[in-house]
Amino acid sequence: MLKKTAAIAALPLMAVAVAVAPAHAYPDDGIDTPPNYNVFLQAIAGDGIVMDKHQAIQEAQGVCKLMQPPNDGSLWDAGQHMLSIHRDWTISSALSFADRAVQDLCPNRGAF
Questions:
Q1: Can you give the residue ranges of every domain in the chain?
Q2: Per-residue pLDDT tens digits for 62-97
Q3: Chain-centre distance of CA 27, in angstroms?
């Protein structure tokens, strides 16, 4: 009887724990980790890519969408996409940008 009472008393605590858990919790498996915008922005700056940070993040998110299902684009596809947006970039810059997006921002990036 005492065990049953203790179990019933613990139910509200478990409900609170479930209620406060973030809806987008990231498992510590190295595959689905939160985006790291600052690392991404520093990396592209280090690659010599100079652009507005908000535009960079928005375009990087576009790279992520291109590479995840159902599109399943490759890194080359993403580089070509970036090159079509920034005609003054080299293919090397476009591929670097796409690669940095995958490394630092894309969800499930370990699955690409």
A1: 33-111
A2: 999 999 888 899 999 999 999 999 999 999 999 999
A3: 13
